[in-house]
Write a structure and sequence with these properties.
By secondary structure, the protein is mainly beta. A 4-stranded mixed beta sheet has the order 1-7-6-3, with no helix packed on it. Strands 2-5-4 form a 3-stranded antiparallel beta sheet, with no helix packed on it. The mean pLDDT is about 95.
């Protein structure tokens, strides 16, 4: 996904089962450049600094990675 500095976007995460007891852990390649937060039942990214970054969600033994470019 591509974002402008200051914008937010939904990460479209669908965790199944929704009542999992597994811990969720976000790994952000540069936490000074973007942040991840939960709002309205979804996960969102907020763009702070231009560049290319990755955000990986770990849940139990599963993971998924989003590639984010901030302009």
């Amino acid at each position: 996904m591509t974002l402008e500095v200051g914008n937010d976007a939904n990460l479209n995460v669908n965790i199944q089962p929704s009542d999992t007891t597994d811990s969720l852990y976000w790994d952000i390649s540069d936490s000074s450049a973007l942040s991840v937060y939960k709002s309205s039942g979804g996960y969102w990214v907020h763009a702070v600094k231009a560049g290319s970054y990755t955000v990986t969600l770990y849940c139990g033994d599963k993971s998924c990675t989003s590639y984010i470019t901030i302009k």
